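REVIEWER CHECKLIST
Item 1: Sequence provided? yes
Item 2: Single chain? yes
Item 3: Sequence as submitted:
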Amino acid sequence: MEAFEAMIRHALLYWEVDPNRVYMLGISEGGYGTEALSCRYPDWFAAANGMACGSGTSIHVENLRNLPFRTDVGEKDTMFKRRPNAEVKHKLLEEYRKKDGGGYVHHLKIHQGRGHGINYKPGPTWLLQHKRNPNPDRVVYTMFEHAGVKTKGAYWLQAVNDLEKKVVYLDAKMDRKLNQISIDATATVNDEKVQFADWQQELTDQGEVTSASGLKLRVWLDEKLLDLSKPVKVMVNGMEVATVKPKLSTKTMVWSMKEFGDPKRIYASKLEVVVP
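Item 4: Structure as written out by the authors:
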């Protein structure tokens, strides 16, 4: 994970790469890696493509709300349940898409008559049809432990602290008409049952969920999503927790540049709230 972040930051800084056109794809083992990393860092990529793989629901696919994802798998590629798992994953993504209306772009291509070896050309062509939106108006993200490291958010939404070893579920929206940020923040009552990526096993039921009380969130403010010349109202779990007049500063801009290393994610203002 550290290597991928360092590589992408280096490419943006030295290779004149368009930060909204960074793509990830992999084949077989690399396909599984693509599936896992895209759910952890959806805000890094414009689109992702896992080929000759199928992780099923063993990863947090809800985090792909703003990241178009494609899977290519052979019809006869049933070792490790690759094709059935791919079908299950995209069935779940489709359920999310129908409920959401503005996210979860996905595509499953089953290569008829093929096994583990497939035609790798369609995936990259599909990827290039997509461009990253670095500041979507809605962010859905589950904070979970992976390889001993806890995720802390995506896009313009970050957790400043952690709730020990709880799983945290975030669903945040920005509404320019209301000049309002609405955040649903819940967490498991018990500590996370940490599950390593197992492509044949569904995610473990994490049990009862309650308000993520005590969680401190940092929200980076973008002028395209909110009118920063006016007070911004913040709602958390249906309660108004703050109404803030954004302060613009070069210090915040520098801070965001250091935080993200991304010229498309430079913010002149931010705010922090604690979940009640």
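Item 5: Key structural point noted by reviewer: Residues 183 and 230 are 19 Å apart (CA to CA).
Item 6: Recommendation: ____
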